Amino acid sequence: MKITRSSLKRTFSFSWRDLLVSAAILLCATGACALLHQTADTIDGFASPVYVLAVLLISRFTSGYLFGLIAAVLGVIGVNYVFTYPYMAFNFTISGYPLTMFTFLVVSLVTSTLTTKTKEQDRLRMENEKVKMRADLLRSVSHDIRTPLTSIMGATSAILENPALSPAEQQSLLVDVRDDAQWLIRVVENLLSITRIGNESAKITKEPEAAEEVLDEAVRKFRKRFPAVSVEVHVPDELLLVPMDAILIMQVLSNLMENAVFHGGTTTHIALSAQRDGPWARFYVQDNGQGIPPQKLHTLFSGALRCEDSSPGDGKRNMGLGLSVCMAIIRAHGGTLEAKNLESGAEFSFCLPLTKEEVS
User: Rounded distance, CA 219 to CA 232, Å?
Assistant: First the structure.
């Protein structure tokens, strides 16, 4: 693997936080050894594993190799000078003692190196997953945007180039243009949410919101687009306040309801509900459509799912983007999202954590 200046800087980077963490762990290790020294006749042999554990913890909770290596050296010095006979003095003349100290140093260095290397591999794996997710998202969005734009261009060109079209024909084309424009708006909203959540400097601001109001607002917007689909809402009698970013959660509900219409095939009714479930608030979106193909359930939120009955150019049939956005939003809230088939239709449910006050 090629070593760059940036990777070298990250490997041996210094931060005051890491320094404080390292100092605290070493002080705890020293205190533990001092306590053993007072309660036992000798602590020879006990101090080494304590400091090896300290080196492992420092390597785990600090960045790069720097503090893990420093802790390994300081651990050897501490064991040699403070907690090994003759105490408070260096003595390398005792039989077997140099080999013991060398072994302890090697074990500490290896522990530090392996722990830090494992962390680095986890970081690289997460970065690769982010790159893959962005690539999948880009491919999905490119398809979703190109198809409606092509349809809009075709419909508007037909209207402009054929003045002899009847009002009914023009009305039909304009309805198609409006529907495609609404779909593009939804794609852009999903993209903005993904960008907002994916930005490490951005934080989701959660405020206590009444579950009933969030559901009602999501249903109100949904009915404007799909007046033919009946929607019923069930909420608990008592006020259920849920910490959330209301705009993002309404987008989750909108995505799930729209998917029920676009991909349920025969969906004519949707039921929304919310209830308290221990330390969680659980939301349900149920429909009476055709359900989800069982073989698709394990890839439902991967961002790459397309219905089998969609044509290659039908961007509106892509539900992968909307569901992957839903999963990202719910995870950002510290919750979970699940899907399953019912006897008639499908059910999506997600949980959001409640505050201690709401749980009690």
Answer: 9
Tokens 């072994």 correspond to: 103
- Angle subtended at Cα 262 by Cα 228 and Cα 196, rounded to the nearest 5 degrees: 110
Q: What angle do CA 146, 152, 153 make, to 5 degrees?
A: 90
Q: What is the pLDDT of residue 312?
A: 41
Beta bridge partners of residue 282, listed in sequence order: 275, 351
**Of 135 and 283, which is predicted with more confidence?**
283
The verdict on whether omega for the bond into residue 86 sits within 30 degrees of 0, i.e. cis, is yes
Q: Please say if the pLDDT value at position 47 is more than 90.
A: no
Burial of 309 (0-12, 13-18, 19+ CB in 10 A): exposed
Predicted confidence at residue 93, as pLDDT, reads: 63
Which H, E and C letters describe the chain, residue by residue?
Answer: CCCCHHHHHHHCCCCHHHHHHHHHHHHHHHHHHHHHHHHCCCCCCCHHHHHHHHHHHHHHHCCCCHHHHHHHHHHHHHHHHCCCCCCCCCCCCCCCHHHHHHHHHHHHHHHHHHHHHHHHHHHHHHHHHHHHHHHHHHHHHHHHHHHHHHHHHHHHHHHHHCCCCCHHHHHHHHHHHHHHHHHHHHHHHHHHHHHHHHCCCCCCCCEEEEHHHHHHHHHHHHHHHCCCCEEEEECCCCCCEEEECHHHHHHHHHHHHHHHHHHHCCCCEEEEEEEEECCEEEEEEEECCCCCCHHHHHHCCCCCCECCCCCCCCHHHECHHHHHHHHHHHHHCCCEEEEEECCCCEEEEEEEECCHHHHC
Structure tokens belonging to residue 54: 């300290």
Measured distance CA(51)–CA(56) in Å, rounded: 9
Q: Rounded to whole angstroms, how far apart are CA atoms 244 and 352?
A: 8
CA distance 162 to 292: 42
Residue 263 CA to residue 219 CA, distance in Å, equals: 18
- Going along the chain from its start, the domains and CATH numbers come out as 5-128 (no CATH), 205-360 (3.30.565.10)
Decide: 52 and 104 in contact? Cβ < 8 Å: yes
> Mean pLDDT over all residues of the chain?
78
268's tokens: 């004519």
